[in-house]
Amino acid sequence: MSSTPSLADLKTKARTVRKAIITSTTTAGSGHPTSSLSGVEVAVALYFGGVMHYDPKNPHLPGRDRFILSKGHAAPLLYAVLAEAGYFSRDLLPTLRKLGSPLEGHPNMRKLAGVEASTGSLGQGLSLGIGHALAARLDQLDYRTYVMLGDGEIEEGQVWEAAMAAHKFKLDNLCAIVDQNGYQQTGPTEKVMDMKPLAPRWEAFGWNAIEINGNDIGEVLPALQKAATLKGQPTVIVSRTVKGWPIQDLIGPDKNHHGKPLTVEQEKAALAFLDA
Amino acid sequence: MAATVTADPKLGKSVREAFGIALAKLGESRPDVVVIDGDVHNSTRTDFFEKKFPDRFFNVGIAESDLIGIAGGLASCGKAAWASTFATFIICNAYDQLRMSVAFPNLDVKVVGTHAGISIGEDGPSQMGIEDVSLACSLPNFTVVVPADEISTGHAVEALAKIKTPAYLRAGRPNVPIIYKPDTPYALGKATTLRDGKDLTIIANGLMVAAALDAAEQLAAKGKQARVLDMHTVKPLDDAAVLAAARETGKIVVAEEHLLHGGLGSVVAMSVVRQHPVPMRFVGINDTFAESGTPDELLKKYGLTAADIVREAQELLR
């Protein structure tokens, strides 16, 4: 967990996570695979790139680093990563969204170890992350808190209330990642509510901003490592991604494909593509 | 048989001030207590805590949604988070955050809404929380408490601090009569019988408890004996006390400084209907916003006085 694997290892891990996202949502018959796929490199770098310190056997360890998935509809990504990290058996992944499964449609912290926050009502994760970051300071613990938001999600006003507060409290132990995959439910984010330019907005709120290609693990890992060294203010990583990466062309002309699982045929083609 | 209690005509502290004092005291024995306020701590009186424990106090500015989210995050890390601002803002503005970041994950966040009811007076309806109890009761896992005076407020803060689940504490702005004696029994979830009687029961909370006691005195002068229950805990409701009131007195008046829809009256009525239906009457705000005025003018105009309780009681007793 804290050792530093090679980029090749991380790419292999990303492939495994992607397959789990695709198969779990197709098996479920619903869910948000494309919203999950865009964030894979960030989550893999956090959990397997030596960035986050955690112990799946002791999921409530006070000093653990935290990952809060504020864009809760990307739950299949969180579940796939937590299973790979050893929080629970991979055998649970096919129970996604089924009655009685702890893998609910959106993350439920009371049902699954490793889930740090119950999310799904967009805009709330960054405030929760501030609470974790303030608690670290009170308890004199050096853990870091990472919060992944969607680029549509940041249209919620609460996100900017939280951005102000994180700056006020100088929370350099807090890192936000905006998974800028460019789409939200009904279309391109820039058409629904143009939030560009993203990085200057966050900088205007008193944050460090780092812009990266978020589907290139070679850019993601150093950005997360750098964020941990920046002191005095919180850091946001504006992670430009592709929704559905890298199988976006296998699921038809709709570059959004929001909230729809792949068909069994698309799933087969996608898995073959990833293995090629 | 409970001792007959009357409201001390000399006003005691406001519930918000009593809350602030109790919270600052709680901070001494509980290093896990943290307080988050929305820049009204000199109104909610969490400034008493702030002065003693500045490191455990967070002013997050005028941002209620973020306030509740931060409280949820702190509680996720084992803190006992007390979150306060005006009742209508903390409940209405941050309702989804209360639902999703506190109630659903069942976190130890104590939400305190001050300036509840129309008795805030001159600031007018934008500042008056008149729907907060109803909305708080609609949050699963929440305990909901509406204290009547400074002594029971101290008891409520102590009792709420002992439970690890979320709660809403409603606190009014004006100074209110002292009702409880230091040795009056108090238990969360248990109605306090302030006066016994056989002819009817008046169930009240908040500042309507003093009005209920006043009404009971007036009824006694007319030869009718009213039981008076302080139903400080709206959720979970003391169904046993409601059942006993229905069985033993046969008539119930409920009085609250809150909209009739979804408030104490609604909750008690459901309990009565489920257990032992009896005739009931309701004193509360009847589907309207109030306006600016002095607290006494408003309580009179909107029907929240002892005279209003007496009138409803006499309707039942006719």
Structural notes for this entry:
- The complex is a heterodimer of chains A (about 280) and B (about 325).
- Helices cover about 40% and strands about 10% of the residues of chain A.
- Chain A is of the alpha/beta class.
- A 5-stranded parallel sheet of chain A has the order 1-2-3-7-6, with helices on both faces. A two-stranded antiparallel sheet of chain A has the order 4-5.
- In chain A, strand 2, helix 6 and strand 3 form a beta-alpha-beta unit.
- In chain A, helix 3 runs parallel beside helix 4 and helix 3 packs across helix 9.
- Chain A is globular and about 50 Å long.
- The mean pLDDT of chain A is about 95.
- Chain B is α/β, with parallel strands linked by helices and about 325 residues long.
- Chain B has 13 helices and 14 strands.
- In chain B, the strands form 3 sheets. A 7-stranded mixed sheet of chain B has the order 3-2-4-5-7-6-12, sandwiched between helices.
- In chain B, helix 11 links the parallel strand 13 and strand 14.
- In chain B, helix 1 runs parallel beside helix 8, helix 9 packs across helix 13 and helix 10 packs across helix 11.
- The longest helix of chain B is centred in the first third of the chain and has 15 residues.
- Chain B is globular, with a radius of gyration of 19 Å.
- Chains A and B meet through helix 5 and helix 6 of A and helix 4 and helix 6 of B.
Distance between the termini of chain A: 28 Å
Query: What is the chain-wise order of helices and strands of chain B?
Result: EHEHHEHEHHEHEHEEEEHEEHEHEHH
- The overall pLDDT of chain A, averaged over residues, is 97
Low-confidence stretches of chain A: none
Rounded mean pLDDT of chain B is: 96
What about the largest sheet of chain B? 7 strands, mixed
Strand content of chain A: 5-15%
Number of strands of chain B: 14
* Gross geometry of chain B: globular
How many individual β-strands of chain A?
A: 7
Fraction of helical residues of chain A? 25-40%
Strand order of the largest sheet of chain B: 3-2-4-5-7-6-12
CA gyration radius of chain B, whole angstroms: 19 Å
Given as residue ranges, the uncertain stretches of chain B (5+ residues, pLDDT < 50) are none
Span from first to last CA of chain B?
26 Å
Number of helical regions of chain B? 13
How much strand of chain B?
A: 15-25%
Gyration radius from CA atoms of chain A, angstroms: 17 Å
Shape field of chain A: globular
In this structure, how is the largest beta sheet of chain A organized? 5 strands, parallel
Which structural class do you get from the secondary structure elements of chain B?
Answer: alpha/beta
